[in-house]
Amino acid sequence: MNQLSLSSTYSTKVYINLDHQQDYIHWDSEEVAKNKRTIREIIKFLVQSKSQEALFYCMAVVKKVNAENGWHYVSCTDCHKKAKTIGSKIWCEGCKKEFSSPTRRYRLELHVKDESGSTIFVVFDKEAERIVRIPTTQVYTTEIKDEDDEEDVVPKPIKILLGKTYMFQIKINPNNIFTTKQNFTAIHVFEDHEYKQLQHEQEEKNQILPLK
Ligand SMILES: [Zn+2]
Questions:
Q1: Residue 120 region, left (φ>0) first, then alpha (ψ -120 to 50), else beta?
Q2: Where is the Replication factor A C-terminal domain (predicted)?
């Protein structure tokens, strides 16, 4: 069972290989169809039902990568949360642990747009790495060396996301309070072709049903 595999009922699992690590994302076509929303509908949901948690799917184009808050963060190696840099040491307050070398993880603020409006989807860590296709450390190392790029804080490898369409799985948290700009956390990102392929397979499967 590698790469792509279909399970028996409505669910489809997408297997993704990254750095020889196998990971899978549970994909349920019925659930996607049921919870697919436009950006406008997601914002409306948030305004109307403040205390509810929800998962939505939203197909949108990446228009810009916001760089004001950076594109990565120094994290704790154990818990993945943001860690403090004190001198040359890395400190995690939660784990009460010190690290000598930083673990960098992606935090990409994507300015996205669909036919209904625009907003910001934030993509973290492995999900971001999956679509950028280059590990954070590698981007960071090459970027630091690239002196010409100093004014432009979004590294070139991340710019490949611009103009691309993705299916974002958005988590609405009851504690969604926007201190600065409105933004939503995308817990999974599916590439357009992955989504279309799965949709196509689902359609084919539905046509095969022997009900005559
Ligand atoms: Zn920690």
A1: beta
A2: 56-185
String of DSSP letters for 19-66: TTEEEEEEEEHHHHHHHB--HHHHHHHHHH-TT--EEEEEEEEEEEEE
Separation of CA 167 and ligand 1 centre (Å): 30
Cα–Cα distances in Å, from 188 out to 66, 127, 191? 19, 6, 10
CB-CB contact of 60 with 112 (8 Å): yes
Structural domains of the chain in order of their starting residue, each with its CATH number: 4-206 (2.40.50.140)
Task: State yes or no: ipTM above 0.90.
Answer: yes
Residue 113 CA to ligand 1 center (angstroms) comes to: 34
CA 125 to centroid of ligand 1, rounded, Å: 15
Distance 69 CA to ligand 1 centre (A): 21
If you measure from the C-alpha of residue 82 to the centroid of ligand 1, how many angstroms do you get, rounded to a whole number?
8
pLDDT in tens, 11-60: 444 444 444 333 455 567 788 889 999 999 998 888 887 667 889 999 99
Measured in angstroms, how far is the CA atom of residue 175 from the centroid of ligand 1?
22
Contact 94, 79 (CB under 8 A): yes
Nearest to residue 202, comparing CAs of 32, 21, 3, 19?
32
